[in-house]
Design a protein that fits this description.
The protein is an alpha/beta fold and 247 residues long. It has a domain of 172 residues: Vaccinia Virus protein VP39 (Rossmann fold, 3-Layer(aba) Sandwich). The protein contains 7 helices and 9 strands; from the N terminus they run ααβαβαββαβββαβαβ. Helix 2 crosses helix 3. The chain starts with 22 loop residues before the first helix and ends with a strand. The relative contact order is 0.16. The N terminus is likely disordered.
Length: 247
């Protein structure tokens, strides 16, 4: 599978380790350019509805990994759920805590939560940002913090061509993906990543579109994009939607 790895030409001491290389990218977007996340609201709203269908608890205990602009956390909190968030950015965590939602600064591979604490963990557009070792440790941690019978729900881009978004730092000559992605996924790879950790795994192609409030023409366009996304057509910018249950 295609990998985008940090380039070895960087000057020692000027750049970060593989695990922290993209922290400044997401710290910037999450705290200074949150408008980039507005297009994700349809996807996040869909994931909240999926979590609601999967969990049996009247007030599920939910962990979201990666705050973004906090839309998912606020949406779930408005439903009366017990919501927690995890993110490497102290500023993003502080902003969420100030709105009355529990959040912790930390990383997926070493989460500051108790064993069996959550009914569901959401990781949407997260795994493509991680190195192979981070992802393996992160999945172990997700399994640890889930209750028996709990679910992991999330998304990754489908068959992303990583080279199309590569850039180079003019200061240190480090080659990096502009959104911090390291890995491209197809359905077999995603299933292969999840299967060693979870008993029930489902993965499917889709794209997240909005129908409510659109004109007839707009709804037709949304329907066409949805069909193309389910077929994996790149023009629809498809995702892999996955659910995995801890047995």
């Amino acid at each position: 599978m295609l990998q985008a790895r940090p380039n070895a030409r960087s000057t020692p001491g000027n750049c970060m380790t593989n695990e922290t290389l993209h922290d400044p990218i997401w710290s910037y977007f999450q705290n200074e350019a949150q408008s980039v996340f507005e297009g994700s609201h349809t996807r996040l709203d869909s994931l909240v509805r999926i979590v609601g269908r999967l969990t049996k608890a009247p007030r599920p205990v939910l962990l979201n990994i990666g705050i973004g602009n906090g839309h998912l956390e606020r949406t779930a909190h408005a439903r009366g759920w017990q919501v927690h968030a995890l993110d490497p950015s102290p500023e993003s965590v502080a902003a969420l805590v100030s709105s009355g939602i529990a959040a912790e600064t930390g990383r997926i591979e070493a989460m500051p939560f108790a064993d069996g604490q959550f009914d569901c963990v959401v990781a949407s557009e997260v795994f493509e940002h991680l190195t192979d070792s981070q992802r393996a440790r992160g999945l172990e941690e997700i399994r640890r913090v889930l209750k028996p019978g709990g679910y992991l729900v999330g998304t990754v881009p489908y068959r992303e061509v990583l080279q199309e978004n590569l850039a180079i730092c003019p200061k240190c000559q480090q080659v990096f993906h502009r959104w911090g992605h390291t890995t491209s996924f197809d359905l077999p790879k995603m299933r292969g990543e999840l299967a060693p950790h979870f008993g029930q795994v489902t993965c499917r192609r889709t794209t997240f579109v909005q129908f409510a409030g659109r004109s007839l023409g707009g709804k037709v366009k949304s329907l066409v994009r949805l069909v193309l996304g389910k077929c994996g057509a790149s023009i629809a910018v498809p995702n892999i939607l996955f659910t995995a249950r801890k047995c």
